[in-house]
Structure formats: structure tokens, C-alpha cells
Amino acid sequence: MPCLGSFWAAIWGTGLFELTLDRRGMDVKGTATLGGVPASLEWREAFSGDGVLSRYHARATVTEAQRQALGIVLPATQPPLATGDFKADVTVVREAGDRTTLDARLDLSPQALSLAALDWYKAPGASASARLLGRFTPGRATVDVNLTAEPGLELKVMVALDPETRAVRRLEVERAAVGQTWLTGAVDLTGPVPAFLVSDGVLDLEPVLKYRKTLPKDDPDTLPALTIDAGLRAVRMGERRVLERVSASLGRTNTHWRTALIRGTVQGGPPLSLTLGPSGEERAFSLVTEDGGAALRGLDVIDSLGGGALRVEGVIDDAGLARGRIDMTDFRLTQAPVLARLLSVAGLTGILDALAGPGIGFSVLRAPFVYKDPDLVLKDARAYGMALGLSARGTINLETDTLALEGTLAPAYAINRLVGQIPLVGQALVGGEGEGLIGVTYSVNGTLDDPRVGVNPLSALTPGFLRGIFGLFEGPAQQTAEPPLGGGQ
Q1: Number of domains in the chain
Q2: Last residue of a domain, one of 162, 179, 196
Q3: Which domain holds residue 375?
Q4: Which residues contact 120 (CB under 8 A, 6 or more apart)?
Q5: pTM metric for this prediction
Q6: CA pair distance 241, 297, nearest whole angstrom
Q7: Phi then psi for 459, rounded to 5 degrees?
């Protein structure tokens, strides 16, 4: 904090003052320009005593240009974090023993405030204020920050500074709240990367996920290298996508998330775990849950699956391309509109009735895939049960909810498979692995809500070794074993 001489030199000639002087001290009142900002000033300087030595009290309205001139530079965002003027009422007290206190009250109501990634905005005139209480001694420096703004923004944090350099070392967060998010924890800035420690709270990621969809595809990930260790009551990703009792440990470089171990319970469903870690030049990932149907339903991914142990494993390269496989066992499929339309067109009414009723049971699903946002490419995915076997390959665009798939339906899969096990004859009749004596080739294109379904009815009458001949007359797209990454139109 400035001494008498340096402070007087800073304001000399910048305003008009009333000076009162006696044996005990000096009082100065008037107007001055502090850091380029016109302000009203009251200054008390004691000439003796072991209590308060100096007291400075300034009031000012700070414009946006003046804020930047003062060196208060906010991160560049669109829209900006803050625009417009704010009012400041600041008191600094210097005491004996080299102790200094700061009390700054800011009226932010005139400003427009924005946290676009959290879908939070404050219009000019809406209530907003901040108070900063600083305490500075030779061995300790802290600032308590209390910020509130309508609608529903609250921040209570203690900032610990280096006593010598005044660099921020640690933030103790009593409460940070906006929208449906509230968090308690700390941020440690003394290590090689910032370390976020979240001890309690609820995290609402829905506005963040929506915001990211508005960014250009080539928009760089601007998050710095950091680590996160969190214990949360819930993580919300949508109205029906909630993980409860979440523990998470994550680490990232300046470009991507490098490690993760996340455990939680799907709301109204089973436990779920996700891991991510280095695997040579790539990153390996794994998603595991004992009840895939309930987990996917609880996360609002799909409502038509029941039961089934689910495991998704794969690797991600530095370009963000993921390759892996989905495995699921002992599950039932009910009320699946795309499959229902396919069964109807194929004339498999008995299986269609089961789908509308108790569902179709499957013993195994195995689906190799490649994913590059937004396209999920299935590569010879297969599922089978007693009543039905099917294969699929093609592309699903997860951004536009469109698909281009083709494959084979094999009703009475168990009988088909039994025929295929007859020595010599079976292999000739059913063709290659996964084929059957009776089967229907199909294609599905268009939107998930209203797909176009095509079936080759003659394929249902031909054994496996003739189906390959019919394939010669199909279009080029149906002969592509591995569809290229691209829009699923």
C-alpha cells in the first residue's frame, strides 16, 4: 500500500482538495484521478499512535474503458463476460505492524454480465454486487470474495495470495452456484498444473453440452492442462440424464483429456464406470455397467433395451478418432420403431408381435465401430437370440439423427444355426459365418424418426450360397463392407 509521499505524488494536481491539519494527523477530502478514474477521496493520515496509521476511502464510477486501462482484463468470450459501467466504494486501512485491510464494495447492477457456456445472463439493471475483504500481513495475504447476481449467481471464495509476490496460490470455495449447479471445494495453484478439488455439490453439464454444439467444428479446445478430483451428489447432462453419487479423477494436457476414472449410479438405475488412460500413442477407454438397458434408459440414450451386461471398449487417437467394440449379453428389445418397421416390411409378423409385447430376447450383441464426431460407423455388428439374428453395417450421424444401414435378418435364428452345424451340407446351405438358411437382406436410410426401409424379398427364399449371387445385382453402396466416415444421409 502506498505511503504518504507516494500517494500524494500520485494525485497531486489531479483534483481539488480540502486539507485539515493538526498535531494528531491530517485529513484530506476532495476529488482526484486515481489510475485515470475520477473519484471522490477521503484520506486520514495519523502522525503517531500504534493503531490505524492511514485510511483511504474512494468512491468512483468505472467505465469499461477505464477498467481496461486499470489492467482489469477479462477473458475474451462471446458475448463478453461484462460490459458497461460499475460503481466502486473502496476503503484501505494501514495499521501498525505492517498490517493492511481492504474493503471494496462493487455495485455491478448497471452492467450486462454473461456466462454463455452456462446459459446464464444478467441484463443491465438487474441486481448484482460484489464485496472483497482483504487482509495483508508480512506472512499472510488473503481476500474474501462474495459475489451475487440475479438470476441465481452466487460465489463465496477465499483467495490465498503469496505474501511477497501477491500471486494467487489457492482458492477455497465455500459456494459457487449458478442455475442448477452448486459446488464446494478448492483450487490449488502451487503445483505444475491447476488442481481442482470438489468436495460436494451438483454439476449441471446440460448448458455446457448445448453450448459446445454451437461452436465451429474446428474451434480449438481452450481448456488448459489441469487435474480434477471430485465427489459429487449428482452430475446432470439433461432432464433425464443424471448420474448420482459420482466420484471422478481426471487429468488433461493442453489439448485433450488424458486420464479419467469416473464411477457413479445412473438415476433410477445401476452403477456405471468409465476409465480412460494412455495406451501407447493412443488412449484406451472402457465403459462398463451390469445393466445396460437400465443405464442407457436412465441416461436417455434408448428406452427399448431391457437388462444385459454392457461393455464398451476401444482406443482414441490424437485426431479424436475412436475405434472399439460394443458387447452386450442377455438383453431384451421392445418397442423399437426402426426394427418394427423392418419386421413389418419383411412380413415377419410373429416376431413383430413379440417386439410389441414382451420383447425379443438376444443372447449376444457384438458391434465393432469407428467414431469420429458426429458419425458412428458400424462394422459388421451382429446380435442373435432364439427368435432372431441380425447383422448391420453402415453409418449413423448422431448430430442429424440420420442413418444409412444395411444387413441381414435371420428369423428363427436357433433353427438356422442348427442347420448350419450339419457336417458338409450345413456350410454349403447357409454360407458364411453369421448367415442362415432363411434370411432377409435389408437397408434402412433416412431419419431415425421416419426411415426408409428396403427388403429383398427373394433373399428369404434362397439359401446362403445363392444370396451372394443376388448381391452382385445390388447397388455399389450395398457392396461396401466398411462405409466411409461421412454424413449418414
Answers
A1: 2
A2: 179
A3: 330-489
A4: 114, 151, 152, 153, 178, 179, 207
A5: 0.80
A6: 9
A7: -65, -20
